[in-house]
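Now for our target.
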Amino acid sequence: MPAQETSRPIYDCGRFYRESAEYPEQLKFRKFGPQWFKKLYDDEEELLVMERELNVDIAELRNQDGQGPLTTLDFPRILSKRDGRLYGKWMRYENKLRAHAQDQCLVNSLYQLPVHGSYAGATLNDNSELFKDGIFCPTNESGGAAAYQDPASPEFIAVVDVGSYDFLMDLAVKNIGWIDQKILERLRRWFRMSAGSGQIRLSTLRTFFDIIACMFVPVLLTATMFALARISRLMVRIAVVGVFGLIFTASAKLLSGLSRYSIFSLTAAYFAVASVFVSTAVDGAGKTT
């Protein structure tokens, strides 16, 4: 009797798959954590049963020779070749043991995969072709749309690590749709460019903010030196250094997302250089007078 074909609707997801080759960071997959953990424990139970059966068979083989019982840890495997049935069971036990270790390594690798970032989640959720009547179309999963559209679900992983965001990067990611519609779309019209795909590469955003940071730092340091050169009173200079130092510290956090330790080191270096500049200017003013 021929197998009955499973009835399944066909969804038009081809464009999504083609775009995913260019934007793989938007993909998210279930990691099936509970299922994997249950499998590991089921395998351990079967391994223990197989080991106990092997120990019984080894003890029977040893009794035939008038010797005391041994376990799989004490009895050399090569001696089990005397009994083809025992040797076959031993090899199946070791194959199961090897497969269990491989599964453990696989689960460990699975949980090292990155989580699905907010940028990728926003891009995925905006794709109306994937979600129809609560169904996630690629897997035909009824009610799956809510799970796949939940950015806080811990049961999903990404295949591409997008890294961590600093404050401004995270703000841009959360408003990616508004940026594309209100800013980039106007630029496209002004420069008569073709309409975009509705997606902005994460690398493009990173490059943009890297350029902003590279431009901001020398401007801030130059402004600090210019202000100190124009001010003659020592106390006012110290106050100016404090204000610009606060701006420098805040911008370092907003533009780079560095750790507290790194920001503390950068701030200390900034004030060290500024204090040298202030003291040099004071010495120069004293010699002039």
Q: What stands out?
A: DSSP finds ten helices and five strands in the chain.
